[in-house]
Amino acid sequence: DAGVTQSPTHLIKTRGQQVTLRCSPKSGHDTVSWYQQALGQGPQFIFQYYEEEERQRGNFPDRFSGHQFPNYSSELNVNALLLGDSALYLCASTQAGVLTEAFFGQGTRLTVV
Amino acid sequence: AQSVTQLDSQVPVFEEAPVELRCNYSSSVSVYLFWYVQYPNQGLQLLLKYLSGSTLVKGINGFEAEFNKSQTSFHLRKPSVHISDTAEYFCAVSITDYKLSFGAGTTVTVRA
What we know:
Oligomer: heterodimer
Helix content of chain B: under 10%
Order of helices and strands of chain A: EEEEEEEEEEE
Shape of chain A: globular
Number of helices of chain B: 0
Largest sheet of chain B: 6 strands, mixed
Protein backbone atom coordinates (compact mmCIF):
# COMPACT_ATOMS: atom_id res chain seq x y z
CA ASP A 1 0.00 0.00 0.00
CA ALA A 2 1.61 3.22 -1.15
CA GLY A 3 1.54 6.01 1.36
CA VAL A 4 1.32 9.68 0.50
CA THR A 5 3.44 10.51 -2.51
CA GLN A 6 4.60 13.98 -3.53
CA SER A 7 6.31 15.27 -6.63
CA PRO A 8 8.76 16.64 -7.40
CA THR A 9 11.09 16.08 -4.44
CA HIS A 10 13.16 19.18 -5.15
CA LEU A 11 12.52 22.29 -7.19
CA ILE A 12 14.38 25.52 -7.89
CA LYS A 13 12.45 28.53 -9.16
CA THR A 14 13.17 32.19 -9.79
CA ARG A 15 11.38 35.05 -8.05
CA GLY A 16 8.15 35.96 -9.81
CA GLN A 17 7.66 32.54 -11.36
CA GLN A 18 4.81 30.15 -10.69
CA VAL A 19 5.08 26.61 -9.32
CA THR A 20 2.81 23.56 -9.08
CA LEU A 21 3.35 20.81 -6.52
CA ARG A 22 1.51 17.50 -6.61
CA CYS A 23 0.25 15.04 -4.01
CA SER A 24 -1.38 11.62 -4.15
CA PRO A 25 -3.06 10.62 -0.89
CA LYS A 26 -2.80 7.30 0.87
CA SER A 27 -5.15 4.67 -0.49
CA GLY A 28 -8.59 5.03 1.09
CA HIS A 29 -8.07 8.66 2.08
CA ASP A 30 -10.18 11.43 0.60
CA THR A 31 -8.92 14.56 2.35
CA VAL A 32 -5.68 16.34 1.53
CA SER A 33 -4.03 19.11 3.52
CA TRP A 34 -0.98 21.18 2.61
CA TYR A 35 1.60 22.57 5.02
CA GLN A 36 4.58 24.88 4.60
CA GLN A 37 7.63 24.19 6.76
CA ALA A 38 10.23 26.94 6.68
CA LEU A 39 13.75 26.04 7.75
CA GLY A 40 14.00 25.53 11.50
CA GLN A 41 10.26 25.90 12.07
CA GLY A 42 7.21 23.73 12.51
CA PRO A 43 4.80 23.12 9.63
CA GLN A 44 2.17 25.79 9.03
CA PHE A 45 -1.27 24.86 7.70
CA ILE A 46 -2.01 26.26 4.23
CA PHE A 47 -5.36 24.71 3.32
CA GLN A 48 -7.37 21.50 3.19
CA TYR A 49 -9.31 19.96 0.31
CA TYR A 50 -12.28 17.62 0.62
CA GLU A 51 -14.76 16.64 -2.08
CA GLU A 52 -12.82 18.80 -4.54
CA GLU A 53 -13.41 21.96 -2.52
CA GLU A 54 -11.25 24.02 -0.20
CA ARG A 55 -12.70 23.33 3.23
CA GLN A 56 -10.31 25.17 5.54
CA ARG A 57 -7.59 27.74 4.94
CA GLY A 58 -4.74 29.02 7.05
CA ASN A 59 -3.20 32.47 7.07
CA PHE A 60 -1.69 32.42 3.59
CA PRO A 61 -2.15 34.95 0.77
CA ASP A 62 -4.20 34.31 -2.34
CA ARG A 63 -1.00 33.58 -4.24
CA PHE A 64 -1.38 30.13 -2.74
CA SER A 65 -4.14 28.15 -4.40
CA GLY A 66 -5.00 24.53 -4.81
CA HIS A 67 -7.11 21.94 -6.47
CA GLN A 68 -8.37 18.46 -5.74
CA PHE A 69 -9.20 15.99 -8.48
CA PRO A 70 -11.93 13.32 -8.53
CA ASN A 71 -9.32 10.66 -7.66
CA TYR A 72 -8.53 12.71 -4.49
CA SER A 73 -5.06 13.76 -5.64
CA SER A 74 -4.24 17.42 -5.16
CA GLU A 75 -2.13 20.26 -6.47
CA LEU A 76 -0.69 23.28 -4.71
CA ASN A 77 -0.03 26.32 -6.88
CA VAL A 78 2.01 29.31 -5.83
CA ASN A 79 2.09 32.41 -8.05
CA ALA A 80 4.53 35.34 -8.07
CA LEU A 81 7.10 33.46 -6.01
CA LEU A 82 8.99 35.33 -3.29
CA LEU A 83 12.28 34.40 -1.68
CA GLY A 84 10.29 33.79 1.52
CA ASP A 85 8.34 31.01 -0.17
CA SER A 86 11.44 28.81 0.01
CA ALA A 87 10.42 25.92 2.26
CA LEU A 88 9.55 22.25 2.51
CA TYR A 89 5.95 21.77 1.38
CA LEU A 90 4.25 18.82 3.02
CA CYS A 91 1.08 17.07 1.96
CA ALA A 92 -0.99 15.12 4.47
CA SER A 93 -3.94 12.85 3.85
CA THR A 94 -6.73 11.66 6.12
CA GLN A 95 -10.10 10.01 5.81
CA ALA A 96 -12.76 12.60 6.59
CA GLY A 97 -14.73 11.96 9.75
CA VAL A 98 -12.50 9.12 10.90
CA LEU A 99 -10.34 9.59 13.99
CA THR A 100 -7.04 8.46 12.60
CA GLU A 101 -3.76 10.27 12.23
CA ALA A 102 -2.74 12.35 9.26
CA PHE A 103 -0.23 10.58 7.02
CA PHE A 104 2.46 12.84 5.60
CA GLY A 105 4.41 12.64 2.40
CA GLN A 106 8.16 13.18 2.15
CA GLY A 107 7.64 16.73 1.01
CA THR A 108 8.79 18.94 -1.85
CA ARG A 109 11.76 21.18 -1.16
CA LEU A 110 11.18 24.47 -2.99
CA THR A 111 14.04 26.92 -3.34
CA VAL A 112 13.32 30.38 -4.75
CA VAL A 113 16.35 32.27 -6.04
CA ALA B 1 -7.54 29.56 18.30
CA GLN B 2 -5.23 26.90 19.60
CA SER B 3 -1.44 27.13 19.92
CA VAL B 4 1.47 24.93 20.94
CA THR B 5 4.68 25.80 22.76
CA GLN B 6 7.60 23.43 22.82
CA LEU B 7 9.70 24.55 25.74
CA ASP B 8 13.05 23.20 24.57
CA SER B 9 14.48 23.98 21.16
CA GLN B 10 17.42 21.58 21.54
CA VAL B 11 17.94 18.58 23.80
CA PRO B 12 21.32 16.83 23.81
CA VAL B 13 21.28 13.44 25.51
CA PHE B 14 23.62 10.49 25.92
CA GLU B 15 22.77 7.08 24.50
CA GLU B 16 20.72 4.89 26.89
CA ALA B 17 19.79 7.92 29.03
CA PRO B 18 16.14 9.00 29.45
CA VAL B 19 14.73 11.99 27.62
CA GLU B 20 11.70 14.24 28.13
CA LEU B 21 10.42 16.73 25.58
CA ARG B 22 8.04 19.34 26.94
CA CYS B 23 4.92 20.58 25.18
CA ASN B 24 2.28 23.00 26.44
CA TYR B 25 -0.83 23.99 24.55
CA SER B 26 -3.54 26.58 24.81
CA SER B 27 -7.11 26.13 23.68
CA SER B 28 -10.55 27.17 24.85
CA VAL B 29 -12.05 23.82 23.83
CA SER B 30 -11.08 20.17 24.07
CA VAL B 31 -8.21 19.16 21.85
CA TYR B 32 -6.57 16.19 20.25
CA LEU B 33 -2.80 16.00 20.78
CA PHE B 34 -0.04 14.45 18.70
CA TRP B 35 3.71 13.96 18.64
CA TYR B 36 5.44 13.60 15.29
CA VAL B 37 9.08 12.81 14.47
CA GLN B 38 10.97 14.10 11.45
CA TYR B 39 14.24 12.50 10.40
CA PRO B 40 16.58 14.53 8.17
CA ASN B 41 15.19 15.21 4.70
CA GLN B 42 12.01 13.27 5.41
CA GLY B 43 8.35 13.94 6.12
CA LEU B 44 6.59 13.56 9.44
CA GLN B 45 5.89 10.25 11.13
CA LEU B 46 3.35 9.90 13.91
CA LEU B 47 4.79 8.73 17.24
CA LEU B 48 1.60 8.79 19.28
CA LYS B 49 -1.71 10.56 19.75
CA TYR B 50 -4.18 11.44 22.47
CA LEU B 51 -7.83 11.55 21.43
CA SER B 52 -9.61 10.61 24.68
CA GLY B 53 -9.50 8.09 27.51
CA SER B 54 -6.35 7.15 29.39
CA THR B 55 -4.04 10.10 29.88
CA LEU B 56 -0.92 7.94 29.45
CA VAL B 57 -0.39 7.20 25.78
CA LYS B 58 2.12 4.71 24.43
CA GLY B 59 3.52 5.07 20.95
CA ILE B 60 6.03 3.55 18.60
CA ASN B 61 9.75 3.08 19.26
CA GLY B 62 9.30 3.04 23.05
CA PHE B 63 7.93 6.58 23.35
CA GLU B 64 5.10 7.56 25.66
CA ALA B 65 3.36 10.80 26.57
CA GLU B 66 1.09 11.97 29.36
CA PHE B 67 -1.83 14.33 28.85
CA ASN B 68 -2.31 16.72 31.76
CA LYS B 69 -5.44 18.80 31.31
CA SER B 70 -4.95 20.97 34.38
CA GLN B 71 -1.46 21.95 33.27
CA THR B 72 -2.36 21.92 29.56
CA SER B 73 0.68 19.80 28.84
CA PHE B 74 1.54 16.77 26.73
CA HIS B 75 5.15 15.86 27.50
CA LEU B 76 6.92 13.13 25.54
CA ARG B 77 9.27 10.66 27.25
CA LYS B 78 11.52 7.75 26.45
CA PRO B 79 13.32 5.83 29.22
CA SER B 80 16.39 4.92 27.14
CA VAL B 81 17.33 6.58 23.86
CA HIS B 82 19.32 5.24 20.93
CA ILE B 83 21.51 6.98 18.39
CA SER B 84 18.71 6.42 15.87
CA ASP B 85 16.39 8.66 17.93
CA THR B 86 18.36 11.68 16.75
CA ALA B 87 15.70 13.73 14.94
CA GLU B 88 13.34 16.70 15.13
CA TYR B 89 10.24 16.20 17.26
CA PHE B 90 7.03 18.17 16.85
CA CYS B 91 4.08 18.48 19.18
CA ALA B 92 0.77 19.27 17.48
CA VAL B 93 -2.80 20.05 18.50
CA SER B 94 -6.08 19.80 16.63
CA ILE B 95 -9.66 20.68 17.47
CA THR B 96 -11.17 19.88 14.09
CA ASP B 97 -10.82 17.37 11.33
CA TYR B 98 -7.04 17.23 11.38
CA LYS B 99 -6.09 20.83 10.86
CA LEU B 100 -2.92 20.51 12.87
CA SER B 101 -1.20 23.35 14.68
CA PHE B 102 2.45 22.53 15.30
CA GLY B 103 5.02 23.74 17.76
CA ALA B 104 8.39 25.01 16.59
CA GLY B 105 10.05 21.65 17.19
CA THR B 106 12.69 20.18 19.48
CA THR B 107 15.95 18.89 18.06
CA VAL B 108 17.13 15.78 19.89
CA THR B 109 20.77 14.84 19.45
CA VAL B 110 21.82 11.51 20.94
CA ARG B 111 25.53 11.11 21.64
CA ALA B 112 27.41 7.85 22.26
